[in-house]
Amino acid sequence: MNKSDIDSNRLIDIKYVLSKLSKTRQIFVSEADFQLELAWAIKTIYPNAIVRLEYCPYFDLNMHIDILVIINNKWIPIELKYKTKKCQKTIDNEVFNLKNHGAKDISCYLYLKDLERIESFKKKSVCFSEGYAIFVTNEMSYTKPPKKDNCVYSQFSLHDGNIKSGIMDWREGTSDGTKKGCEKPIELSGHYKMEWLPYSEIDNTNTGFFKILINTVK
Fold it and tell me: Which of 26, 41, 203, 212 is most buried, judged by most C-beta within 10 A?
């Protein structure tokens, strides 16, 4: 992508930013590392932007936004997820030891919770322009439907081509331990298509390919 490819109809073209970032950072140490590098990339491409991390808006002191971008007094909240499969990768003599995050059901729930949080931000902020929920992973099971139709998190599945909207909840009978801290149903007013795209390819092993999911709240 060249700079001429930037979508000028948006305050920030997040796909362009992530495409540029993927050329210099194919992999991240952690979600915090991803957060810092994305914020830096946004500031580099949009030098006039105000960029804040872990932002707590005045209208909800219990809400924390991973990245808030402010351009011309318009607010763009960004929420991130970075979930990995255990592996070790070496890039330019730097060794990355990635953890096995597991808990796919909870991770799917929390990504949709990010979308719900951004929708709440939109309702409460007169400065809202648009928001983004972003998920990067080298665990390809996220992109595929659950193996069992009656699995406890089927309504939260992020598999490719799936559309998320309305009220989503755990299957009846899901144990308290499984959904601890994530008990409440998710309710989305918008419609969001789960469309996984390539992010980076480090090697041809089953842990060397990263995909990215981007959903926009308008």
Answer: 41
Domain that holds residue 85: 3-104+111-145+159-164+195-217
pTM of the model: 0.96
Scan for tokens 């799936």, then name that residue.
Answer: 162
Rounded mean pLDDT for each run of 10 residues along the chain, 218 residues in total: 72 96 97 98 97 96 96 97 97 96 94 98 96 98 91 97 98 94 97 98 97 98
Identify whether 190 is part of a domain: no
